[in-house]
Amino acid sequence: MAESFQNRSFNFLTRRGFLTAAASATLASCTLGRRIGAVGPTMARAGEFGQLDATAPGGIDLFIERKDLLVGGRPGRAIAINGSIPGPVIHMTEGKEALIRVHNLMAESTSLHWHGILLPFNMDGVPGISYPGIGPGETFTYRFPVRQNGTYWYHSHTGLQEQRGHYGQLILKPADPDPVAYDVEHTIVLSDWTFEDPQRVLWKLKTQEGYYNFQRPTLANLDDQMRATGKSLSEVIGKRLAWDRMRMDPTDIADITGATYTYLMNGKAAHENPTFIAKPGQRVRLRIVNASTMTFYDVRIPGLPMTVVQADGQNIKPVETDELRIAVAETYDVIVTLPEDRPYTLFAETMDRSGHARGTLAPRTGMSATVPPQRRRAMLTMADMGMMMHGDMKGMDGNMDGDDMQAIDGKMHGEDAGHQNMPPRSGSELPTHDLPDRIEHGPDQHGPASITMAQTAYRRLDYPGVGLGEDGWRVLTYGQLRALKRPYGRRPPTREFDLHLTGNMHKYIWGFDGKKWTESDLIRLQYGERLRINMINDTMMSHPIHLHGMWMDLYAGGTMDDNPRKHTVTVQPSELLTVDITPDAPGQWAFHCHLLYHMEAGMFRTVAVVRSFAGGPIDAGA
Ligand SMILES: [Cu+2]
Predict the structure, then answer these.
(1) What is d(CA 298, CA 318) in angstroms, rounded to the nearest whole number?
(2) Cα of 117 to ligand 1 centre, how many Å?
């Protein structure tokens, strides 16, 4: 039955620039790959995905199944979509209706969420919020009008399934002529893969703090630290002890590292060298999606500047840069042009410097260029701790020493805990430009579910991120993002609240305002209001925060005319980041950290867009 569905409704695109070989390979693997237990030399390779058009007549079918695939040349237990990881690139055309039948061929429940897409809430694909999920053997039909364009992606919202490859790219073609000119385009899906059972990874994180952080300073590498910092043995030991008192680690930049991860570009490991054809002089559009569960990537092409034209599917004023950090769940579109008839390395280094994904941009197949060495791992700094005291950001070496740490220690474990959150402020119109550059932390310490807390959180819009900006080349920042055209619905907010990002790394509890999802209430937004959320990151990690169903208008230092809008915003350690929202999509929506294991550990809220705060049912027909 499944076979006939498939053959009838696969619509392969022939758009120039896409590799048709990949498409036919997918058709083959879909048909053959369903044979259970295919192993050894006959096992299909990850990364052989096709192209489908969900707005073509008849719609499309997606088949979700457990499948053994060669990942980086090793057999792994994947969750494949139409036979592959990533799943097919799904195209849609703005103004048309998308029709997607998702068939669950697994013995467990699944789901499929359209990341960044505006649609009725019951089409959003989050089990327990939008619908019950897709049970074993069941088919769920998604049908929604396509109201936007740009580069997006889709993925499972069930348990840890995304870690096994349940994701793919979405390309939404604009109804009007595309303001971005290009000759060829390529899909770049970055992800992280483990051969371990993801549940076991989570268990290790919960029971052994820093399990995957083999880079932490230890007695054995005190010598290295002394050499690197030019400090004495006692200073180095003092610093180490200070971090221990803080019960954190300056190298805790990622929870999960290359110790278990294989880093993938389009399902291929670095040594498999996925190749993207680009002739000299062509304008090449790279549609980059970070479909990782936990990995931030720093993307660059040595020798080639990149012109960033889109962020999270939204056109921005073009910015030329040399490197960009892409958070989990973000997308960036860049234009590059090869000046010479030679290959260039597309290098995606992990933020924690424990590995990389890599491909090659080349005029022909079978070529490769020099792969740059991985840079040294970065250390968190005083700024990450919100310790830019007295506004004096100059004259600091950026690295904390033991005395600084003692001062912080005293502040952070003060006796003034237990206060209530500040009530939401509302009333008159709030300012929309030149917002305050910092916020002092209130008395609430958010209880035992929050172990660290910066005294002051700062705007860090021009900070490229830990480990970036010292290499002598340009790095993209949020402060550079400006919408190409003024987005709709911009007006001053009349209500605001602060939302603290909190966590306890020992117990591996992550949440908002010190509470896990299971301990929290709904966040209620009134339909049509204009609302501001000030996100304050009390933790030492960067969290990519994602709101379903509605745009977040990011305060990026511009004005209502040109601040960008995003579906996912990274909040860096000790950062104050502000977004304005118009809740224009009635229903229930997910709002969460997109680091999969943080979400699973509780950094998640349900948002309800209601007709009135006075009560009454959620009116989906509003
Ligand atoms: Cu997080």
Answers:
(1) 19
(2) 21
